[in-house]
Write a structure and sequence with these properties.
The protein has about 450 residues and is an alpha/beta fold. The protein has 13 helices and 16 strands. The strands form three sheets. It has an eight-stranded mixed sheet with strand order 13-12-11-7-10-9-8-14, covered by helices on one side. A six-stranded parallel sheet has the order 3-2-1-4-5-6, sandwiched between helices. It has a two-stranded antiparallel ribbon with strand order 15-16.
Amino acid sequence: MTTRRDFVKSTAALSSIIAAPAIVRGQNLNSKLQLASIGSDGKGWSDTREMATHDTVEHVAFCDIDLNRTMNVRKLRPDAPIFQDYREMLANLGDKIDAVTVSTPDHMHAYITLDAMRQGKHVYCQKPLTHNIWESRQVKKQAAKSGVITRLGNQIHSHEFYRTAVKTIQAGKIGKVTRVHSWVGTTGHGKSGFIDRPKETATAPDSIAWDNWIGVAPMRPFVDAGLRCYHPWGWRDWQDFGGGALGDFGCHILDPVYTALKLTGPSDDIQCSEHTGMNDEVWPAQGVFNFTVPGTEFTAGDRLKITWYDGGRQPSTKGSHVPGYRALPRSGSLFIGETGTMVLPHVGAPTVYLEGKQEPDETAIVKADNQNHYHGWVDGCLSGKQPSDGFDYGSMLTEAVLLGNISYRFKGETLKWDSENLAFTNHEEANRWVSRDYREGWEIKPVA
């Protein structure tokens, strides 16, 4: 009798286009998608909970480095085993797992995602896709090589608000877009409350597998600081682990920009025009960076300039069609077109202001339906059809975000980015941040 493992291996060898688990599913479309979650609380729990609402999902295992943060998943599926090391989980239960969700701190996204895809698992990974640009390329290559179904965890990509904005812009309701501004009210650091490494350290309790949490990053001592310093809430502030406000929200807020305008070209001419200061440990509290991308059928001219603001900074509405007395939302995007301007809040309905009018024009809005981002990925895993927002797209979107964070290190300098060769052509020091040095035993091998 052919075992599930034998079948997965044999079918994976037959095709590099269709994922092995997808072929297994194709033999019996009434079977369950056997899913494992890596990261079980916080965003990991919301991802797990939402996936579980799909009728064909069966959670077969859970993983979290902190056993104290597995209470929710234990209630969801009391008979499913729980691991502190995802590698042990895949080694022990690989034949029972078709797909995984990766909801860990940013620095471990690539390591885990690459490992899972090499084993033929479909992957849903939280944003940003990776912690550095070289990793994003490896993930993109491996997804294509493995033929698995992938999706970036920026769930508002499928929400009616963002889908409506995309349809409205592509319908030409504001004309061709001449300029884009995007911003978020969140600061680059502040979740941890630290700007330097704390002197007070502690021994991690047995319930926390600290070596697994550190993973690819340089080792540092565990800190018991009321849960705020590194694990579980403060990690995003630290350059070794997260990407600050830009890493947190960039792949959300810039997503409708890339989707609506069908941007596919690389970002270049990146410049951080200002920030409030940074050291070698945490990201700036506030920052602004500019970048340009090749124009498309939906933009005016062959180049488009995009500006990102974080930490509560916002653009001026000067030069747009928005009346001066109209306040901008706390987070969102401003699409300035030839005949009108769209204001798109982050998680809010878009508003269009047309030339010569002081009030929003509701007739300019082209409504779109609401879709379930999680269910769309599950459906893709079962059918073998790749949904939008896969790792091919996610890698490009993540690259723009990571380039912005590199620019924060060189305030006021224009960086010339050669995306094809993964290098800055005018700034050798900046090339240091395209990848990272990996901790011994946690190296990431390039995809052949």
